[in-house]
């Protein structure tokens, strides 16, 4: 699994792109590729957990969603995660 941490600014482009981004994440969740996702309580960023086998697959998913390159959205960190409880 992979944890993707985002940071947000108040750029209006981010809010305009969010509905399509959330639709994409909902579809990936239905496919079992996204486990859980959501904004931080203070809306300064978000955390996404992807369940894909490797980094190249994760990179393909991120590249297919223009939200991740939208002004106001920054990928702060990507880490591989090995949970023992799910």
From TrEMBL:
Question: Taking every annotated instance into account, which residue ranges of this chain make up the domain YCII-related?
Answer: 12-81
Per its UniProt record, what SUPFAM superfamilies does this chain match? Answer: Dimeric alpha+beta barrel
Which family would the database say this protein is a member of? Answer: Belongs to the YciI family.
Q: What is this protein called?
A: YCII-related domain-containing protein
């Amino acid at each position: 699994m992979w944890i993707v941490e985002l940071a947000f600014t108040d750029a209006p482009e981010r809010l305009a792109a969010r509905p399509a981004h959330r639709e994409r994440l909902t579809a990936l969740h239905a496919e079992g590729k996204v486990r859980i996702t959501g904004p931080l309580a203070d809306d300064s960023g978000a955390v996404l957990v992807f369940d894909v086998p490797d980094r190249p697959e994760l990179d393909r998913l991120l590249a297919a969603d223009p939200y991740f390159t939208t002004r106001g959205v920054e990928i702060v960190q990507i880490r591989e995660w090995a949970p023992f409880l799910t």
